[in-house]
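Contributing new records

If you add data, match the layout below exactly. Sequence lines come first and carry their own label; structure lines follow with theirs. Keep one chain per record. Anything else will be rejected by the validation script.
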Amino acid sequence: MSAVEHNPTPILALRGVELRFVQPVDLAGRIANLLGAGLKTQVVHAVAGVDLSVRPGEVIGIVGESGCGKSTLGRIVSGILPPTAGEVHYRGEAVHAMKGPDRRAYELGVQMIFQDPYASLNPRMRVREIIGEAPAAHGLVRSRDKAEYVAGLMRQVGLDPSFAQRYPHQFSGGQRQRIGIARALALKPSVIVCDEAVAALDVSIQAQVLNLFERLRADLDLTYLFISHNLGVVSHISDRVAIMYLGRIVELAATDTVFTRANHPYTQALLKELPSLVPGRRAYQPIKGELPSPLDPPSGCAFHPRCPHAMPRCKIERPLLREIAPGQYSACHLNDSA
């Protein structure tokens, strides 16, 4: 049984999920090796063993620095990338074993909203087609009803239906993101993976879109996997927060717990960098060093080269994610010596 909290009927469950990108030595490299170059196959450990259960209607925030694997994890959950190892379960059934109607239910039931609201929209398609193409193709709406269906979705996300004939470049960034949200909602999903869905927006627009996510969650009983590098944003929408570092979850707990009594040194370091409304000068202490390369991850605990509390054991043995308090999970050897 995984160390992560389980629910008898999670809507999503990840079990030992890994994803490795392999770059073999090409022809030029093999010729160079004949001359003693010593080139080897490169393996990027993008996701290095993730266990996570998501309850229906829950919002889980996934936070970490750029390159930690959080966006890759989101693409695995939404079916864009197949995992190298481990399993993704949807409503109790392994996705890789799904066929027919069950597979279709998963593919329609888990949708993704991308970070860049312009690059993710086809610039040659009108909004009516961007939103209405997929539900019409999957038989969720008849062709003659598509215009009305799209208009209803546009109203739901705060867009004027009269804009349905426009192209993406005729909208602002916030409006384009609302188009992306409407496109995801068009397939009537149960789970939405939000990959940095507000990162490219102005702060005032971020608040509007976050409020929209909250309202849609309440109205449609949605489950969110909310991926972000910003703990402040995640705190406003998430029920639980998972902190990722170099392809692994290093801490998982309720949002209030993470912000009031974070356990893992990495989580504590991230929280120290959050802006504060308390007046006065602050001495910012950024996390030392840089995120290690997934091509050559450190031995033992991946965070030990940057951790102020690193022990000799941290360089050798990788800590397991385990429950240290009710509902709080952390992967740190300091908990063994406490």
